[in-house]
Input
Amino acid sequence: MTSFPKPTATVPDTTIYERMESKVRSYSTSMPRSFDRAKGSWMYDENGGSYLDFLSGCASLNYGHNHPVLKQALLDYIERDGVTHSLDLHTKAKAEFLETLEEVILKPRHLSYRVMFTGPTGTNAVEAALKLARKVTGRETIFSFTNGFHGMTLGALSCTGNAGKRGGAGVPLSHVSHEPFDGYHGSDVDTAEMLEKRLADPSSGLDAPAAILVETVQGEGGLNAASNEWLRSIATIAKRYGALLIVDDIQAGCGRTGRFFSFEEAGVRPDIVTMAKSLSGMGLPFALTMFRPELDQWSPGEHNGTFRGNNHAFVTATAALKHFWSDGAFEEEIQRKGEYLRTRLDRMAEEHGLTTRGRGMMRGIDLQSGEAADRVTSAAFDRGLIIETSGAHDEIVKVLAPLTITDEEFTCGLDILEDCVREALAPQFVAAAE
Ligand SMILES: Cc1ncc(COP(=O)(O)O)c(C=O)c1O
Output
């Protein structure tokens, strides 16, 4: 029997952070504890408090914390003095990763991609994708979408919608056209059709882009899930106008939406795919940009980075692919849990006249205001549930539980969430907001 989380109320001494760490930090402000250990779906603070993790390192820990199979693979590798850092040298660990990716993931999906090891963050994989698309097509503009989030470096930030994040750039963010995402103008308006119309019109002023960059489910932008039809239309438009289709699968990939790649369900075949977050399986930094072999027009070193050879991440990623993706059992498990999550969130939404968002194990509930959503996440944290918000106004409470979470843990966390939503929408709060 899993015990319910028992958090501590003790806020530890934070003077070292106030003295030394930049004010740019954010999660630590809303969750003021000193975490020390983590296992499976749980994080533990220094004072013995336990917290059920519905944030999962923002989808970087799809297989939970310190999964025993991945941890053992890493311990064995370190124990035999396996290479840790290798620039882009050939290593046994890298070869094993590539072979496993090819055999376990790409071949069964009839995908043929060349793999580029970028710097180890998602934003770096996006930068590489943008550069490659511009280089191959000779065009400058990228189409990205309203509410899209693609990272914090200048190229990726240009493709990001959020004004707060864009404001940090300090220079103009250009060469990107932010097109309306699926549903942006309501469910009756087909935004793919609108885009096609403008591209087809020689007087619309819209030049054909180098690439269309899309998230199938917008992780940071509010869990807006594109329909399969819309994604297929976008893929067709890209092809028709000589643009490359880039799917940013950094948050929605690695099983989060039910299949390994989030675009599988729609049956689209992106020209370029970016991956990071849960790719290493253990929270180790690791990112990839994959593309059709014909697009591999890079010159050696044209996009490089010191940390492209994180062999520890290769080892854990290989172990994760073998352990979770060699057959269809894990996919079935995610889809079952995703359905359970959908029914629980629908029930909460129905009780309060709200709506839900998302797909698979990447879903949330729209509290309609950032204040209400903040009341939910704060109350949840006080009860030992780590959960965060997303969306233009931080109004969506987003559930990113580990895909490996047990049914009992999942029920426990969703029970807490249900209570917190009820509390946050209690008459005194609603009256105060009016
Ligand atoms: C879809 C998407 N792309 C890119 C990024 C950037 O990844 P990173 O924070 O590792 O740079 C994120 C991060 O949340 C993301 O969700």
